[in-house]
Amino acid sequence: MQIDVSRDVFRLAQVFTISRGSRTEAKVLTVRLTDGAHQGWGECVPYARYDETLESVEAEIRGLPDTFSRQSLMDLLPAGAARNAVDCALWDLEAKRAGKRAWELAGLPAPKPEITAYTLSLDTPDAMRAQAAKNAHRPLLKIKLGTPDDMPRLEAVRAGAPDARIIVDANEGWSAEVYADLAPHLVRLGVALVEQPLPAGDDEALIGLERPVPVCADESCHDRASLPGLKGKYDVINIKLDKTGGLTEALELRRAARAQGYGIMVGCMVGSSLAMAPATLVAQGALVTDLDGPLLLAEDRDTPLVFDEAGVHPPQAALWG
């Protein structure tokens, strides 16, 4: 089996800012697997938060042997971006070999559209109010917070989009005391979920803390091995394929997390429709779907995902799976 890796850059529609910095483009790795008759592909987004770079992830992929399967891949690569792109490419390859859709191979029912969050870039309160007003027609907005000026921004967004459901992502920027202080205001403003309020290494402080707004583990949850450490701290987990290391582990993590009583959120890094396509299978019936990466781009893959009032639609076979 031949492995090809390429670096692709997609321009963003506008500057995108979170508490960790700003960007104007999405840099991704595209993996193509060819067996001579069929080709499958997948995409990953290396993330500096997990000590990943384009170079390091590409080296991991190029270091794979000539022959492997989705099962053996779990032992060959750790959970992370490299394994994600290869695993998703394998699913696509297997679907093309079988003449079936990936969801059929996974034993899943036919996927349907899911309402997805739309993320507002971190900015001044006035600018965020304007962003919210522009996107007030969307049923679910996500706000990136984690700064000393979070409340003015949140108040501004609620004023700009009075009817939208709102979730917030603190990007590890709060403490337990900050969450406890903000919680009544989050309830007042109708916030439905808080994503990763505390640094992953300090989230023991969530144990025993009253959580009037559900708390979701993002940086604290990567794969099934993360679950024992989440008990008593979180109500929801955020499944991202670039964390789980692909669709194979993501489906297993979803099954195990649901069995333990966690709500499911399915998120993404900022990437193209190819990166989101496998995640639409995991997002079926999720409490929160956050697969808005392509909506933030100025350009996308051929045969991109469809986004409309019904949400993000499953991919056409021409894109993936």
UniProtKB/TrEMBL annotation:
Catalytic residues as annotated in Swiss-Prot or TrEMBL: 144, 240
Pfam families noted in UniProt: MR_MLE_C, MR_MLE_N
Main enzyme class: isomerase
Alphabetical UniProt keywords: Isomerase, Magnesium, Metal-binding
Keyword Metal-binding carried by entry: yes
SMART domains: MR_MLE
A GO term, aspect molecular function: racemase and epimerase activity, acting on amino acids and derivatives
Coiled coil (residue ranges): none
Cofactor note: Binds 1 Mg(2+) ion per subunit.
Entry EC number(s): 5.1.1.-
Residues involved in Mg(2+) binding: 169, 195, 218
Cofactors named for this entry: Mg(2+)
Protein origin, superkingdom: Bacteria
Chain ranges of the Mandelate racemase/muconate lactonizing enzyme C-terminal domain: 125-216
Protein name from the UniProt record: Dipeptide epimerase
Native source species: Ruegeria intermedia
Source taxonomy: Bacteria, Pseudomonadati, Pseudomonadota, Alphaproteobacteria, Rhodobacterales
